[in-house]
Structures are given as structure tokens and as C-alpha cells.
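Consider the following input, taken from an annotated entry for Protein Churchill (Leptobrachium leishanense).
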Amino acid sequence: KGHHCETKESPSTCLETGSFLMNYVSCAQCNKRDFVLIANKATDDEDGEELITFDHMCTNCHHVIAKHEYTFSVVDEYQEYTMLCMLCGRAEDSISVLPDDPRQTAPLF
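Applying the prediction step yields:
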């Protein structure tokens, strides 16, 4: 039977690294709220899509708190980001690679 670490409501912000420790209540294994390490980081590039995965790990007992997945790709003129993690939350973002994002047509005054 697997242990699940407790998390609170997650914000939806895309982060490549780092942990939203405000979501982190305590480690299910040792019950301590210690620093969260990033371990087993791997990058996989497939068909122009980059997949970055790593584990959030308890500093105290090395229990894996959550698995973090982050994807990055360029579609047309947009950089597409997605993030999926029990600790950091789930997010999607799209940023124009052009200096002026065609979707942001408001005049700059």
C-alpha cells in the first residue's frame, strides 16, 4: 500500500524547476516538513518536444514525494509549456516567439 504525501490546493504556474512548498504539508513516510530535493532528473527529446522529468524527494528520509513532468515544444510561432506534478500542480502556457504577440493586440501607450 503506497503512502501519499499531503498537498493543499495547487496554483497553476508553469515552472521548470523548484517546488511550491506552500502545497507541501509533510512527508508521508517520516512526517517531517523538510527541504525538497530534486532527484533523478531526465531530459528526453522526441519529435521537437522536450520532456523533462524529475522526482521531488524528502531531504530527511529520501522518500519520493511527487513525480514532476514538464514538456516544452515550439508549435508555429508559439512556445508551448505543460507541467504536471502532484506537488506543483498542473499548468499550461503558450508564449509567442515573436517580439509582438499577435494575440496581444492592445496598443502599448
